[in-house]
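Input:
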Amino acid sequence: MEYLFHIFIIAGIYYILALSLNLIVGYTGLPSLGHAAFYCIGAYTSSLLALRFGVSPWIGLLAGAIFAAVLGLLIGAPSLRLKGDYLALATFGFGVIVYQIALNWVSFTRGPMGLPGIPGYSLFGFDLSQLWVFLILVVILSIACFFIINRIVNSPFGRVLRAVRDDEIAAKSLGKDTIKYKLLVFVIGAFFAGIAGSLYAHYITFIDPSSFTVMESVAILLMVIFGGMASLSGSLVGAVVLIFVPEILRFIGLPSSIAAQVRQMLYGAILVAFMLWRPQGIFGKYRFK
Amino acid sequence: MIIQVLINSLIATSIYSLITLGFVVIYRTVRFFHFAHGAVYAMGAYVAYSLFIGAGVPFVFALLLAALFAGFFGITIDRMIYLPMRRKKSSSLVMMLASFGAFIFIENLIAFIYGNQILTMRTGPIREGWHVLGAIITPIQTMILIVANVLMVLLWLFIQRTKLGKAMRAVADDPIAASVVGINPEKTILWSFFIGSSLAGIAGVLVSLETNLEPTMGFSALLKGIIAAIVGGIVSIPGAVLGALLLGFAENFGIWFIPAGWKDAIAFAILIIFLLFRPQGILGVKEK
Amino acid sequence: MPILDVYNLSKSFDGVKAVDGFSFALEKGQIVALVGPNGAGKTTAFNIITGYLESDQGKVSINIHRAKRIITGCAPYKIARLGIARTFQYMRLFSQMTVLENLLLASAKRKHEELSSVFFSPKSIKQIEKENLGRAEHYLDFVGLTEKRDSLAENLSHGQRKLLSLARALCLEPNILLLDEPTAGVFLETKEKIAGFFETLGSQGKTILFIEHDMHFIMNIADRVIVMSEGKKLCEGTSIEVAENPAVIEAYLGKKLDQSYEKYSN
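Output:
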């Protein structure tokens, strides 16, 4: 039972990640391949604030998100001038750079040794680290994220995003400052990824760079693609399926390292299959052109 | 000391050149980032390992067979994945993502088959190197230098002098115009995958002689290849060599100043700078 | 004072001069046709004027509400905000959005599209959206696409897309309309419809510059015609003056009419 709670918590965290990336990729059409960088910053910011300065994880949640948003601005400002596969490559590059910084700046992040002993959440002295309680926290936060992002995409602002995605040149001809919209959406996506990062850090209580590699970015993108581009409920499907199915592999007794390889093979195969046959994803309303 | 770094740089350059040249040869005809190239590279190394260490095949044959295998493997990836996408007129972004998916699949397939541990291509004791101008170069390193550079020259002659090579250049330049003069673009793509992938396979084998095999070897090789290609000029064959040269030298001389762990971060920073300010690379021409 | 003043525009691509010292002026309320053989540089000129292309030389300025403003080198979205709307040769509709949504996006007011309006929507924002809807429906009706309002733009016929493209530019309620081949490839009845729209717009005092190939269409509609060839302005005048200009005929046919008859005279 505990194990099931754990999986749901992880799926919930990834749902937030998938939602945040879907806003960027699915609704605005920006191929962002380095989303794990924002996840990473959120996690490390929150953890370091808690470990070094005794900052409450609740504040860490917000701080992690803000720092991630700032990183989003720093990465987005140069990268979003690029198009298509070049944008993908640049964001991919930034993802690697952030990972390398986490790995190599040992004096600050403890590099590959990671940060152990990250405190959990507590409310009015009540410790929230029991699994079922934490699950409730994750569910509340993911519903909140869904609510916010859903409002964004269904508003006139969201309509402009879809216009930018559909035909940026036409959007400009209607007076839309497309660069501003792309940047805003990138920053918002980064913000929510930062929230997911903080949640993850204070749940797992130990983080190290290996949770924030390029493959992590690909996994999140895969959840968006699988569930459906520009489909917020699709992202739920994507997160749940792509978290649960590999866990089933572990459950049926495959040794851990083999399970990891099979999981990656599955991810790779799914990516190829969807790009070949259904680039918009299962419930998606948009496909990369 | 400088001579040693120089030699190390030249060896790194030679290997990066093979990888990058393979990548560029393919890119020129298909115009998207064939990420799976890194997996082909790794495949070449592992196939050679199975033949040489596993089956006792003489090294030269193992190398040749691995090169052939890699070539056909590259073609298989193209026929199975990219060709249907070309027919559907998928964008280069979609094809790049599919390529990345293929890369992940193959890399983990290798790990699944061979295990995660590091394998070595060595059969005998480590041979002592020769002393050259105060530095040491081993027989293996010498062989790498010779094989890589001979292949580069052969590739250059092939592209410049043979009919097929010229066809590849024509398709790289303008596929429609090429088909108008009777060149079959699909056949040309097939050949570029064969040649490019064989080069990658050979590079993989050569590298494994020096630094052993592990399933993730394809990833860093791929990244180096992409960086070198973009810096040198993604559609330029001399550019590939130039990019490899700059990368090889920067890495080896750079260790003097920067701790080794930061190598990748810096390489990517350079990639991003080029993407932003000179995406056509040093020797490339700006596309409209 | 002309509402749009284009002076000495030049643009080369790889050594080929697409636009070469091109100048003209547009007076308020005029309907002017820009004609010329394919490759004359008409769309290139459009792209420079609307900010999508940087010219090598030359100046573009507008004079709206008695304020003169140089717009050369401005970003396209800024030029659009100054009241210059354009259509594209290949229409560039938002194909995966509905006809209505395409028009809702064509709004001169932008407050409702800000991020802040997502969460704080006071009455003023709701008012803007209501106005947009009314205006969108008005122009939908104007071009006769009301029954298609919830169809996806990609599902329209070619003629309907041309109409939507026109409606979208009109919905911006601009000071100047730049239309790139508004009737290309449409059936005769749609063409006549569009001709009717032009007449209505003309009577409303709108300023229109449009690229067109159909001389008959132009004859009945345009106050003035500018002829472009090989990047340069060949001549300018009423449709009749231009049609009888020998240089214009030569540009279209590639040789003098007399010479072509000579071949057959013996």
